[in-house]
Specification:
Shape: elongated
Strand content: under 5%
Largest sheet: none
CATH topology of the domain at 35-95: Arc Repressor Mutant, subunit A
Helix content: 40-55%
CATH architecture of the domain at 35-95: Orthogonal Bundle
Oligomer: single chain
Length: 108
């Protein structure tokens, strides 16, 4: 028995489950939550994104660290069901969450 190895049966580990997303209103982007799910701070982040602010500028205007600002930006994007700042601004425009003027072209 000196050279034998015991093998234990494989036990499957439980898979963590995410809760199902809440029901989405008809015209919202796929995977997004209703606009009412955005809180006051989310709207402040969106306003900063509309203005084209950097993460450091957003952090300063919210009086938080850059890591916290980065997290807040990601959470807003997740709530809107989008990836990227421009997509978050477009989703806010589409949902009518903010009065976002259409982007002007650089050439006149």
């Amino acid at each position: 028995m000196s050279g034998e190895h015991l093998s234990l049966p494989a036990v499957p580990l439980p898979v963590p489950r995410r809760p199902a997303p809440p029901a989405v209103r008809g015209d919202a982007p796929a995977g997004a939550v209703p606009a009412s799910a955005l809180n006051r701070r989310d709207l402040e982040v969106l306003r900063c994104l509309v203005e084209g602010r950097s993460t450091a500028q957003i952090a300063a205007s919210l009086s938080v660290s850059t890591n916290t600002a980065r997290t807040r930006i990601r959470r807003v994007q997740a709530k809107l069901g989008v990836a990227g700042r421009e997509a978050a601004v477009q989703a806010a425009r589409d949902l009518g969450v903010l009065a976002v003027p259409p982007r002007r072209s650089a050439a006149r």
